[in-house]
Amino acid sequence: MLLGVDVGGTFTDAVLVLPGGELVTAKTLTTPADESIGVIRAVERALALAGAGAGEVTAFAHGTTVTTNALLEGRAARTALVATAGFTDLIELGRQARADLYRLCVAHPPPLVPHALRFAVDERSGPQGPLRAPTGLSEIAAGLAGAGVEAVAVVLLHASAHPEHELAVGAALSRSLPDVHISLSHEVSSMPREYERGATTELDAALSPLLRGHLAKLGERCARAGLPAAAVMQSSGGLTSAKRAGSHGALTVLSGPAGGAQGARLIAAGASAADVVCFDMGGTSTDVCVIDRGEVRETDRRTIAGRPLALPSLDIETVGAGGGSIGWRDSGGVLRVGPRSAGADPGPAAYGRGGLEPTVTDAHLVLGHLPADRVLAGGVVLDRDLALVAVRRLARELGVGVMRAAQGIVEVANSEMLAAMRAVTVARGIDPRNYALMAFGGAGGLHATAIAGELGIGRILCPRACGVLSALGLAAAAPRRDASGSFEAAAVDRLRARARAELGGDPVRERVRYALRYRGQSFELAVDAPPDADPQALRVLFESAHERAYGYSEPGNEVELVTVTVSVWGAAPVIAARSASAGAQRSRTRIWHEGVELDATLLAGEPAPGEHVEAPAICALGDATLLITPGWSAGVLQDGTIELTRT
């Protein structure tokens, strides 16, 4: 059996893939104080439902929010920076660009390393290699020991091309400070730009001790439970070992959302949908990505919580709109939703755990989109009366009726998600009308038709395991390693050998990506080409990519090769997920839609393959709910995926 466990802000999801392809799913509330507790609870619940033992699990993949939450909440290990003399403030200086062009009071987040913990090392490298060896390392080590640091980021000038001095500094510090985590910039990111490389290394050093602690606890609990050691999802969408993830926490900043993207890719392939816009709406946030020609879009440059991250990652946009996002009235009298969330504790008002503020979940319950008194996955029982009290309180503040307030909460949440979707489609030259929409996460199906209508999309896919699709994506993921080199030191064969060695076996898939730019440009465009591609072939590919991205090319301008990245993948588990549903029980219910009360069909359970559903209807699936509004009809594919089309 294959096991995937994804930790979200509200729920922890587990998926067991049985040998015949049947899926067994379970949800428990996330345990923020120690996420490993919630992980084991979810696994135990899934095993109990499957009637199986832990010893039958052959592979375990884990997606975590430890590094993401730490970054968003400003928690980090006590970290020091060791940099080339004269460059210790490079992260604080940054790019000298405003955080917000039109809001002058908005500032960039402060560096994770305060000024007092920045240490200068006297060294220098030139274009041809080392010029002056590092000195004073024993004094720096003594200063670090006296400061009581937990981690050190070593960022030397030109280390991306010539890492010899960083290796020497790292070795000296490791001997003097064996219990302190050390991140070397050339091992974290190959980017020649010292600011982005330095900021990524600082982030890696500050987060790694936290992640290593979580993975150590999880490893102990897995050993006691008889489970295999967990592999960890990276931001790139590939798995790595717990040891490597704990050594480089920056690799996992998008661990959970990457699992959802991989699950979406699996379901899209089964539905013969090559181009898909995906949105994963959970309890705390919504993650959006694009699948082009069967592959999730990637990037090697992104910003997380205002901090640059120069590592390969899936191109995912995140907004603070989820089922637990709180609706509130701002000082101008305008209805707002999020980014504050009720989370798992106390949760929405309808959970009956002490929450008093209205959330998106409460609004859907008031509107009838969620069946009243229904037991949600994880054993949560919804109380419509408590939701009404919370929404009514906000309605009085806004001076509107309770149903209008509930509908307003849903509409504002939709607008937040639409902004993220347009950022990954229209803003990048993609016409979403040519794509299908895949909605997943516990709350995604409740917003699918409204989102599709705004984007002009005519086909929606809702996986039957949509509430736990991230966990399914984890179980289906392949191991991945990336090796990069700067333009001074990039030798493709050497990078291929390094990536293969880190993978620990022959890859089943390999990709070489070249980052190129016109001379004088500040940023690069990446193109894929064979390992032995010649300069002219790279130029043709680059100019074609430049034409698509910017609408022009400059055939007479010199083209520079900046970095080369080799990515290799191991074998992925073969998952032929199938639906064993005999059909859902049907009854009647009442819902509110666009200010009108409608009579609707309520389906409890998973509809069987071949079954058809006409709007308006609510499909109360095992781990999520799908709302089918007027203007749409639904059919069920062989794997249980519900396909909605415009009528």
Question: Please, could you describe this protein's structure?
Answer:
This protein is an alpha+beta fold. Among the domains are: 132 residues, no CATH class; 90 residues, no CATH class. The protein is built from 16 helices and 34 strands.
Give a brief description.
The radius of gyration is 25 Å and the shape is globular.
Low-confidence stretches: none
The proportion of strand residues reads 25-35%
Termini separation: 40 Å
Q: Helical proportion?
A: 25-40%
What is the 3D form? Answer: globular
User: What's the total helix number?
Assistant: 16
The major beta sheet can be summarized as: 9 strands, mixed
Protein structure class: alpha+beta
Overall pLDDT level: 91
Strand count: 34
> How many whole angstroms does the radius of gyration measure?
25 Å
| Oligomer designation | single chain
Secondary structure elements and their pairing?
Elements: E1 2-7, E2 11-17, E3 23-29, H1 35-50, E4 59-63, H2 66-73, E5 79-84, H3 90-93, E6 118-126, E7 129-135, H4 137-147, E8 151-155, H5 164-176, E9 181-184, H6 185-188, H7 194-225, E10 230-233, E11 239-241, H8 242-247, H9 255-270, E12 276-281, E13 286-292, E14 295-296, E15 298-299, E16 302-304, E17 307-309, E18 313-314, E19 317-319, E20 325-329, E21 335-341, H10 360-366, H11 384-398, H12 402-424, E22 436-440, H13 444-455, E23 459-462, H14 469-475, E24 480-486, H15 492-503, E25 509-518, E26 525-528, H16 535-550, E27 559-569, E28 585-593, E29 596-604, E30 612-614, E31 617-620, E32 625-628, E33 632-636, E34 642-646
Parallel strand pairs: 1-4, 4-10, 5-6, 5-8, 8-9, 12-22, 22-23, 29-31
Antiparallel strand pairs: 1-2, 2-3, 6-7, 10-11, 12-13, 13-14, 13-19, 15-18, 16-17, 20-21, 23-34, 24-27, 25-26, 25-27, 28-29, 30-33, 31-32, 33-34
Helix pairs in contact: 1-7, 2-7, 4-5, 9-14, 10-11, 10-12, 11-12, 12-13
